[in-house]
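From the shared-data thread, chain only:
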Amino acid sequence: MELAYEVERIHDEVGDLFFAPIVGVDCPPPDPATREALLQGHDVVFECIDTMRFVILGNSISRRLMRSVMTAMTLATGLRGQGFIIEKSIPAMAGVAASVLDINADDLVDKLIAAGMVSPKEAGRR
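Structure, as tokens:
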């Protein structure tokens, strides 16, 4: 719920948000307590965002399965086509952010790398 409250606080300051959670290659699936916490806060988050691009990095079987499961969940819950999209790369998410927010996609990727949120390799850079 802390994330939901932080999203709500920022929304109150700046308005609707572009929300892009990034799941790294080595990030394990959420445990039951984490899943429950995410479910409890999702209503607050969805009230505050304009669009969500969930980025799941990696091409392993488990990452492909995670993308498929999340895509199926968006279909089952009616979120598909309502600003909730699963992306498989940082450049894809950055391209959408650039068009939605009128920013430079390469600058966004550079800032994500500089902040240590993604590695150059994860960002599609050498």
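The chain has a mean pLDDT of 85.
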